[in-house]
Write a structure and sequence with these properties.
Helix content: 55-70%
Largest sheet: none
Order of helices and strands: HHHHHHHHHHHHHHHHHHHHHHHHHHHHHH
């Protein structure tokens, strides 16, 4: 089995680096999933989503691939879906195409929360990669989505689950035989099937076969099923099999022992990865005491990583009470990791008005490094919230924040949201004659926001700003946006720094048009710096056009004179 099952729903805290070795080799495992029949995933504690400025799509295949994974780690699922779609269109033959295809479906499942579209995505993946490196992970998520569709009455879900029940890629005839006996309705046949399952679970050295038997076992209504699952969850020598049994226990909603059983396992289990898996299994249980159990773990467990994981597990519970619990942790917890986890967990939910809490944090005045980090995190979180009042909150942060880093975060958050109001605030800041650092940041934020400088604002900044760093920022952004030759010509005419003029020359060469040729010819003739003149000549030589060749001949004639 080629499993990747502990690449996590969101990353572990920066100091934490735990991977599971389930499956072949030590390949990191995939994000949280509780698959059937493939191995269930153990979600791990996410790391704080990064607070650096938003970056454009990478220009290299490797960069695009790494960015998609980072988006998954940071739970930026819509961005990950969009990035995966772009990647597969641009690099269809990439060696990473299979993995990116999986992340595309995984991100769609969580961003759109449309089980039908997610089902189709995984089905397409499995058709294209039936035995790929990520096929087991895809089958796990596919089974999870199919189960939800079946529960909602969609016949595609039941049909897919029936097909998965019959799948036996290891070629062991016992699985379809046992399943058929259990479905026969005959009491003697059912007992024979259960005895065979118990025998395999007790004696087989094949962990993968034991895992499959757990799935078959859950199809039975026999009252001994729960006790068998508990025994496997506590005693099986293979951690992956124990994780699968834990997930199976979480699906026994009709059994009143399910919560107490999972709590008991969490208290006695030594493996922190399995303990985290128990937390997410508890979140799957449809019982009213789930929030209380998870909140108790978040507040009282002796392991800080488990407390943080419990906070994220609360976010997985589809219940309004989860929102109240997370808000309470955000407001009242004295533990930084818990507050941070609650902040990001709330931001990922779409059934909560988180703006008031984010505003309170963004405008807070605490001086510790952790308090400052929460302020920055709350500002970036505001950029992800679909609420028309966010721009007003960010504007207030820009005006009242005491720290440049927080104000910078607000600028980039405004750029990420976009819109006329955000653009107006950034333009005003870019022309601020008093604060060089904020003006420079505003220019770069506008560069993130725009596809082009349609109204020539960057030239206005270049002409009016008294700060060299701001003027250089305007030049950088204009070049990155493919500024017009006229704009770059104006800039090079007034630029004092020869290195900056050389950069403008290279930007003009990339434009490859006659207007750029005219400017380059002028620079080659008249610039006071010989290196800039040589750069301009080289740029003309790189442009394969009649105008460029004419300009070069003219320069040669001048030299001859």
């Amino acid at each position: 089995m080629k499993l990747h099952r502990s690449i996590i729903m969101m990353f572990t805290a920066a100091a934490l680096c735990i991977t599971s070795s389930a499956g072949a080799g030590n390949t990191p495992k995939a994000p949280k999933a509780k698959p059937v029949p493939a191995t269930p995933v153990t979600p791990t504690t996410p790391v704080t989503p990064g607070t650096p400025a938003p970056t454009p799509a990478p220009s290299t295949e490797r960069g695009a691939y790494e960015q998609i994974k980072n988006m998954i780690y940071d739970a930026q699922y819509q961005q990950a879906y969009d990035g995966s779609t772009r990647f597969l269109k641009k690099y269809p033959n990439s060696s990473n195409a299979e993995e990116v295809s999986f992340w595309k479906c995984y991100a769609l499942q969580r961003a759109a929360r449309d089980m039908g579209k997610s089902f189709d995505c995984y089905q397409t993946f499995l058709t294209q990669y039936p035995n790929g490196n990520w096929s087991d992970d895809a089958r796990a998520e596919y089974a999870k989505v199919a189960k939800r569709l079946a529960k909602a009455g969609d016949p595609r879900g039941k049909m897919a689950l029936d097909q998965l029940n019959q799948t036996d890629d290891e070629g062991d005839i016992r699985i379809p035989v046992i399943y058929a006996l259990m479905q026969s309705g005959d009491e003697a046949d059912t007992k024979m099937a259960l005895d065979a399952i118990h025998q395999v679970l007790k004696t087989s050295k094949d962990a993968d076969l034991r895992r499959k038997m757990i799935y078959v076992l859950t199809e039975s209504d026999d009252p001994t099923v729960m006790d068998t699952l508990i025994d496997v969850a506590k005693t099986d020598p293979d951690a992956d099999v124990r994780r699968h049994a834990i997930y199976a226990i979480s699906q026994q909603n009709d059994d009143p022992k399910v919560i107490d059983t999972l709590v008991s396992i969490m208290k006695t289990e030594k493996d922190p990865d399995i303990r985290r898996h128990v937390l997410y299994a508890i979140a799957e249980v449809d019982r009213p005491d789930v929030i209380k159990v998870l909140s108790d773990a978040a507040l009282n467990d002796s392991d800080n990583d488990i407390r943080t994981a419990a906070t994220y597990a609360i976010a997985e519970v589809d219940d309004p009470a989860a929102v109240s619990a997370l808000k309470s942790l955000l407001k009242n917890s004295t533990n930084f990791d818990i507050k941070r986890a609650a902040l990001y967990a709330l931001t990922e939910r779409d059934d909560v008005d988180i703006v008031p809490e984010l505003k309170t944090l963004a405008l807070s005045k605490g001086t510790s490094e952790q308090e400052r980090e929460l302020r920055r995190a709350s500002v970036y979180a505001l950029a992800e919230v679909d609420d028309p009042t966010v721009e007003d909150v960010l504007s207030e942060v820009v005006k009242s924040a005491n720290e440049d880093e927080v104000r910078k975060a607000a600028f980039y958050a405004l750029a990420e949201r976009g819109g006329p109001k955000a653009e107006g605030m950034l333009k005003n800041a870019a022309l601020d004659p008093k604060n060089e650092e904020m003006a420079r940041t505003a220019v770069y934020a506008l560069g993130d926001m725009w596809d082009s400088d349609k109204d020539g604002f960057l030239l206005e900044v270049y002409r009016k700003s008294t700060f060299d760093s701001v003027r250089r920022a305007a030049l950088d952004v204009s070049t990155n946006l493919g500024g017009s030759p006229a704009l770059l010509g104006e800039m090079i005419k007034n630029e004092r720094d020869p290195n900056q003029r050389r950069m403008i020359v290279r930007a003009l060469a990339d434009m490859d048009n006659d207007e750029a040729v005219t400017i380059l010819a002028r620079v080659a003739k008249t610039d006071t710096n010989p290196q800039v003149r040589r750069e301009a000549v080289s740029a003309l030589g790189s442009i394969d056009s009649p105008a460029a060749r004419k300009a070069l001949r003219g320069l040669l004639a001048v030299e001859d004179e």
